[in-house]
């Protein structure tokens, strides 16, 4: 089957970059990315490419090459579904905030809406590709909806989870470790899988394109994220042990990571992992395990989240205890708000929870982040509902100059590992802060010796003082 028209429902962090690269590499295929969020689509269509809704290194160039040629962003969802032979579903699948499975299960209402819309509009056979991260066996639910409410057309459902990481999305898409495609084992299923393989083969070697059954593919995505997050929680657990024993977590990471069976990646101790997916996907895995009565399996994975929450709390507690057990009325400067460097995404960022804990102690926080807007920061805090929006605005200020942010601070906390923080004139910052000059490095990015020579009282995750 030759695919000439692709539609992608959802123009977010996954749909936007993924389809941009897919279109760039397949100029013969018309790719239309649709979304119900008009503002987002307008931003994707903005002639000024610095206004794209998502900041990712290298993304502008890809969009510039493909947009208007064979890549289109639109709010005309029905039209795009109708025209396409292959439809990617790339909508959000957040943790449920209500009803059964609240706080654990994935909320599949957006997925179901997409399936119903496809069923309503489709007049010809379609391949429907799950690009969103979904609980194992969701393909069955999508198929049921399509089969029972469709217009007599046939649908093949494929699972094609996305493994890109934010901040390196374009590189990850151009050069993925693997592409995973799950499909039915029937002839039709194999044909659909081959159609998708052919699209990826435009730029990815065939041996890196893995085909499996649908359930393995759906589950592998949750498992990949669970394993990655587990490594971060494992090293974060060890970071506390390092702090009390005189070991240095950086040295421990290096020592264990050189064992090729362990490997060096995802062993960087931090203030805690954030991002829209690790927590959501592990909670989802835990919920699935529980729903099958696998309580030990569920408890095992839940511990990864418990450890992460503890690490965020521990960082805030450390600031309070070091500042003589009170931060009330003290200015604490946050360098960084994004959940990692090179992204403007703040979803589940550790900074939000550390700020909330410090605001509970009546600290006055000033935030500087090179890519995150003031409105985003306030939305993140307001969403917690811990205090009124007015109170959040009174206690927390956002500035766009790091030196101004640090002026007269009682303490500086590094929450995101932005490269520019390393290059600051720390001598100049030292002169401007209140003494003792406390720095809490939640990302282990600064040179301890340099900071101490300047005069800072420098505390880093996983290093005893
Ligand atoms: P997002 O919130 O950035 O984007 C989702 C978009 O879908 C939104 O713009 C929303 O308006 C749109 N949408 C929702 N329902 C719609 C509908 N019925 N019709 C049209 N548009 C609709 O989410 P995201 O970060 O792109 O994540 C999408 C999925 O990909 C999730 O399942 C996530 O777990 C997974 N994922 C995310 C990442 C990541 O780095 N963010 C990586 C891999 C996988
Ligand atoms: C992660 C996965 O890496 C992707 O493969 C996956 O596609 C994606 O989730 C998803 O499903 O959404 P992402 O969350 O964008 O990608 O970023 P990561 O690089 O994985 O970082 C996640 C969090 O862990 C960040 O807060 C980061 O600072 C933290 N982290 C990461 C550490 O604290 N230490 C490490 O060693 C690595």
From TrEMBL:
GO molecular function, one term: UDP-glucose 6-dehydrogenase activity
Entry annotation: catalytic residues: 277 (nucleophile)
GO annotation terms (biological process): glycosaminoglycan biosynthetic process; UDP-glucuronate biosynthetic process
InterPro entries, per database record: 6-PGluconate_DH-like_C_sf (IPR008927), NAD(P)-bd_dom_sf (IPR036291), UDP-Glc/GDP-Man (IPR017476), UDP-Glc/GDP-Man_DH_C (IPR014027), UDP-Glc/GDP-Man_DH_C_sf (IPR036220), UDP-Glc/GDP-Man_DH_dimer (IPR014026), UDP-Glc/GDP-Man_DH_N (IPR001732), UDPglc_DH_euk (IPR028356)
Listed Gene3D superfamilies: Cytochrome c1, transmembrane anchor, C-terminal (1.20.5.100), NAD(P)-binding Rossmann-like Domain (3.40.50.720)
EC numbers, comma separated: 1.1.1.22
Top enzyme category: oxidoreductase
Physiological role: Catalyzes the conversion of UDP-glucose into UDP-glucuronate, one of the precursors of teichuronic acid.
Protein name per UniProt: UDP-glucose 6-dehydrogenase
The organism of origin for this protein: Bizionia myxarmorum
Lineage per the UniProt record: Bacteria, Pseudomonadati, Bacteroidota, Flavobacteriia, Flavobacteriales
């Amino acid at each position: 089957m030759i695919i000439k028209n692709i539609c992608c429902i959802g123009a977010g962090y996954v749909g936007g970059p993924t389809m941009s690269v897919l279109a760039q590499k397949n100029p013969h295929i018309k790719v239309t990315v649709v979304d119900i969020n008009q503002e987002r689509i307008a931003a994707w269509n903005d002639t000024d490419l610095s206004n794209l809704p998502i900041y990712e290194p290298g993304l502008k160039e890809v969009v510039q090459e493909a947009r208007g040629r064979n890549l289109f962003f639109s709010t005309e969802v029905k039209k795009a579904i109708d025209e396409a032979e292959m439809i990617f579903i790339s909508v959000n699948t957040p943790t449920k905030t209500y009803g059964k499975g609240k706080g654990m299960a994935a909320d599949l209402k957006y997925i179901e809406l997409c399936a119903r819309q496809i069923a309503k509009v489709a007049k010809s056979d379609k391949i429907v590709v799950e690009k969103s991260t979904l609980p194992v066996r969701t393909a069955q639910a999508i198929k049921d909806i399509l089969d029972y409410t469709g217009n007599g057309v046939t649908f093949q459902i494929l699972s094609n989870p996305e493994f890109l990481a934010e901040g390196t999305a374009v590189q990850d898409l151009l050069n993925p470790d693997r592409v995973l495609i799950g499909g039915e084992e029937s002839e039709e299923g194999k044909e659909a899988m081959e159609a998708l393989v052919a699209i990826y083969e435009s730029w990815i070697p065939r041996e890196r394109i893995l085909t499996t059954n649908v359930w393995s593919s759906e589950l592998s995505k949750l498992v990949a994220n669970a394993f990655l997050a587990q490594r971060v929680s494992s090293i974060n657990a060890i970071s506390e042990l390092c702090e009390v024993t005189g070991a240095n977590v950086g040295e421990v990471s290096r020592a264990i990571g050189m064992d090729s069976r362990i490997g060096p990646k995802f062993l960087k101790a931090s203030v805690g992992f954030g991002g829209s997916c690790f927590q959501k996907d592990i909670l989802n895995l835990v919920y699935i395990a529980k729903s099958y009565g696998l309580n030990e399996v569920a408890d095992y994975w839940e511990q990864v989240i418990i450890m992460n929450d503890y690490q965020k709390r521990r960082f805030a507690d450390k600031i309070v205890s070091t500042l003589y057990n009170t931060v009330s009325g003290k200015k604490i400067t946050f360098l960084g708000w994004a959940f990692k460097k090179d992204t403007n995404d703040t979803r589940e960022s550790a900074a939000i929870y550390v700020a909330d804990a410090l605001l509970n102690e009546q600290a006055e926080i000033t935030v500087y982040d090179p890519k995150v807007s003031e409105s985003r920061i306030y939305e993140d805090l307001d969403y917690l509902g811990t205090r009124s929006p007015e109170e959040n605005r009174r206690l927390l200020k956002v500035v766009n100059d790091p030196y101004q942010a640090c002026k007269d601070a009682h303490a500086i906390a590094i929450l995101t590992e932005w490269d520019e923080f390393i290059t600051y004139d720390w001598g100049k910052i030292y002169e401007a802060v209140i003494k003792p000059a406390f720095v809490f490095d939640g990302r282990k990015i600064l040179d301890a010796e340099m900071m101490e020579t300047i005069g800072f009282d420098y505390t880093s995750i996983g290093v005893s003082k």
